[in-house]
Protein 1
Amino acid sequence: MNDRHRRGDLRRAMIEAAVAALDEVGPAALSLRDVSKRVGVSHAAPAHHFRDKAGLLTAVAAEGYERFVDELERAWSETGDFTEVGVAYVRFAIEHHVHFEVMFRIERLHPDDPALERARERSRRLLCAALHGGSDGTRRGLAAWSLVHGFAVLLLAGNLDGEVAADPEGAVREIVARLEALRGPGLAG
Amino acid sequence: MNDRHRRGDLRRAMIEAAVAALDEVGPAALSLRDVSKRVGVSHAAPAHHFRDKAGLLTAVAAEGYERFVDELERAWSETGDFTEVGVAYVRFAIEHHVHFEVMFRIERLHPDDPALERARERSRRLLCAALHGGSDGTRRGLAAWSLVHGFAVLLLAGNLDGEVAADPEGAVREIVARLEALRGPGLAG
DNA sequence: GCCATATCTTGACATTGTCTAGATTGGAGT
DNA sequence: ACTCCAATCTAGACAATGTCAAGATATGGC
């Protein structure tokens, strides 16, 4: 009936409309029926592509992880700089805050979705490679990951005030550099 | 009709039952009617104490902030150690993970609730006092806050694997010590 | 050209948050 | 002790939502 969609098109359209809706009403108030209405299909249409609401969110999260890794990989390969990966992490959280929020809202995702698991595994491997390199291994990576993730989460939640919120990349560059300083000359890090 | 509750008792009972429910079914699946059923009152009873569902969650969050500040204050006054405040931060997130999650799920809270604002302000002041002290001021506090918060969030979301998850306090002590090391001898800062 | 399958629609149902109106209660004032 | 008022709770209703079942339509392989 609906001639606006070719085969496999509805899935994409639903994901994009979901992102738009999440941006407008927030993740708590997302309605499947509303997203269906935005796309112009019946309320039960998405059930065949995503099993349930969690399925749609899972698809958004998986897409988010893919783009996330793409951006981090680019930052890593272009600069080779540990700090810039952290900056890219935060930049992604800001520019794609909808995806970012869904990615870590695990209680509303299908935990064993293959696409999500693949994307998540890709992300995990990249973070290991980019962050865990160095003499003291996992602890340094853990600290860096916690640092940038915490910064991103606090920023998105509105817990960071004016000066920092105005130039988040600058701020994150400074605080990641704190960790990096430990590896500089004068300290056996 | 219900003789199990005296005046002002239902409010407390609802909050406690809400925490129990949140612990069982998760924050996304919390149902007001279910909490009312647990307490043994009609489904519309809580409306007079908390305006709506967000009102109940706001009360849980406010209570969480109060306990949160209590624990951080205790850690700070007992040890005077910067690192131990961070450890207490993460310990609270683990032991009171329900409260912690609700506290930072801002889109489902009443942003201008006076009790919540008071508790949040108390928390903000304490974090400033405990973390922002030192020669380089806010940046150091920002780094520390991001670090412990990110660690806590990643841990609760299940993103941290075995070794770290087995002894989170030890892990957080190590990574907070990283920041602290910057203030040690040999580095001006 | 025909059939199986994928895709979509329609209708239904239980659950949920919230609103309204009415019942009950507890306590202050007289 | 009685009355009255406000706080508190119940019962019922309503719209919105997620999900399921059954049927319609289209699409692509043979």
Protein 2
Amino acid sequence: MSVVEAGGIQFDLDLSKPLYEQVLQQIRGSIARGGIALGEKIPSVRELAQTLKINPNTVMRAYQELERDGLTETRRGQGTFITSNNEVVQDIRNNLALEATKEFLEKMHSIGFTRIDIQRFLNEGDE
Amino acid sequence: MSVVEAGGIQFDLDLSKPLYEQVLQQIRGSIARGGIALGEKIPSVRELAQTLKINPNTVMRAYQELERDGLTETRRGQGTFITSNNEVVQDIRNNLALEATKEFLEKMHSIGFTRIDIQRFLNEGDE
DNA sequence: GAAGTGTATTATATCACTTAATACACTCAT
DNA sequence: ATGAGTGTATTAAGTGATATAATACACTTC
């Protein structure tokens, strides 16, 4: 449903969250899961804006945050490239996992689930 | 930090999310984890607003959502009471857990974690 | 020099959230 | 009956984040 591909990355935007945040997360996810090679070039700001039918400023905001995190390197006049530093990628991947886990456990504890309950819950989900 | 108690419920508001959502979640959490007895009365709209130093309309919005979910019953002129129907409470608790789990697994998968990786991650967090 | 990059700026519009003030309907204790 | 305390509705206003639009500048490559 409204999935768009650009530069080897899948984009699926909706209205549940800010657009710049979704663009950021989906590129970051693609890098973290190895869906895009290190050193690779990603679409230009204008190109991605046109493909996703959103404003260049909105794409820019996502790109700037990626660079701040060290996930991309931007070269004026050339474009934006995924970092070649695999260590940075793994660190960020690890951090994302830690944060997701922490948030999950906090939520479960706040509604009265113990560690054992949670284990059971996760195993039930298997098929 | 800035934890306030009202009607046997702990409130801790910040600016990370809408106030009405935090009030809703914290009351709901208290019910789900059994921190407050079924049938119990919770603070009046005006009283809670004053205690939390927020607008009565904001409290109202949280209370209305609680009632829509069947977690509370409101009696005009009397107040707002936690439902006495334990089944409803357990259903909602279960739903919250399911949603939290689904969101967590999706996030982890999106950054390339397999089921086994996730198991390992959760166990590492133990002490 | 032209085309394509990233980047900055200014203005505008929209929407969610929050507050404020006020009023009404109801219940209960007195 | 009255008054105090309930939930509820309405209208108005302000604020901030988000997104768009239009434009301009600096840089790289061909």
Protein 3
Amino acid sequence: MTLKIYDTLTRRKEAFKPISGNRVYMFVCGPTLYDYSHLGHARTYVAFDVIARYLRYKGYTLFYLMNITDVEDRIIQRAEMTNRDPVELAKTLETTFHRDMKALRMNSVNLYARASEHMPEILDQIKRLIEKGYAYETKTGIYYDLARFEDFGELSHQKLDEVKKHRIDPDPTKKNPQDFTLWKKKETGPLWDSPWGKGRPGWHIEDTAISELYLGEQYDIHGGGIDLIFPHHESEIVQMESLSGKKPMARNWLHTGLLMISGERMGKSMGNSVTIADALEDYEAEVLRFFFASTHYRSPIDYTKDKLEQAKNSLETLYTALYNIKRLQTKEEKQLTDEEKKLRKELRETERKFLKAMDDDFNTPIAISHLFDMAKKINIFTAEDGIVDKKLLGEIVNSFKELGGILGVLQREKESVEEELIEKLMDLVIELRREFRNRENFAVSDRIREELRRLGITLEDTPDGMKWRKH
RNA sequence: GCCGGGGUGACUGAGAAGAUAGGUGGUGGGCUGCAGACCCACAUACGUCGGUUCAAUUCCGAUCCCCGGCUCCA
């Protein structure tokens, strides 16, 4: 089966063909470290994590690169507002970013590349752009001369003269208001030396400098949130293609739909920003990932408590089906029964359909629907048969874990389920024992403590209440 | 103004010229000592108006509404 991926450039689903055989090179625009990572980042990065997992599942050797913007005016602004050092602020936020990514079970990125550590490559690209006549220097910085680039606007389908409008007054030294900054001459804040004096790089140049270094002039996939199409990705194309003379810079441009909060655009100014850490306090990572995967990655997604509850219940339905079949008695016979053969056939069908859906531009909602179909078949089987072939059971459990693993769900380990269960059971036992003690029924309460001790659990009455531990 | 995306049942969310999407919630039934789980069934679903067609929610046109981008954005 061939994988088809929607390409923002052609606005069509295209059959996916890596440039060099089995190797796939993917770049995703990472965070700018001026604030805590929020659910919008989570949505985008989970989407690309799923894409990365699926590419690897299909057997591609994927190199997944993400930049980390640790040099940027907003970071400096934020640092000034809070009286902090911008370098230290970025460092702290980078640590929490990685903590959040890990908490969301994100592990598919091969290399994170900091802008601050790629200054030579950034300067080199700017130099080459000047040499080729694409960029010019003014009193305030180095600018890209958009009049020199013919194919401007391919990605966003904007015409150059349509984008003259601007919210911020353009720098008066620019030839055209649309020209974007490659290097800003500055005297305050974190500064780097350049042939044009001290300053900092523009917004778009770090990405092409980093991607050129690790992935080359042309590579397979470039991704990010849909809000980056213009001007960010458009400018990247301008920079890279004018240097390399090769197009397209990326074979496939993928963009994720934005996350909304209760129907509104999430943003600081709206006062409705939810950090990843906040969300993880209310819902476990699997529920968030399931919630994201329930909507196609290109569609906008609306975060509400209600929808998260729906996602949580839905995910639980899948777990329950697994639980239902796992608790059956197992047997090892040479022959499967007709019912078991049928179930195994349905399992293979489910796998096939799941992968077919993923091949169609990573259609996770459809893929998930096939898991539910299978869950129903499992439930029917378990309602009718009290016993199941051990090998078949293993196949079903593995299959769910493998397919779910592509989405990063259904990975809950047996141990952790049981540990969670034990916690809850102990809460209950303790509560019951407290009632017996309150009624001065010490015979029963002592018996509870004694029986638990034999089971390997020590109960202690402490001033802070009853505590228990394994011994 | 320009460039995109979208309007599907209580909520969500796919899809495609003719199929029952799937899920959550609700109601009724089955199973059950009770509850839960599970199974079965049910609810005027495809923004509006035209057109093409044997047939459209799916194609075409018009129209209304929503969302995003237009140099801060994942």
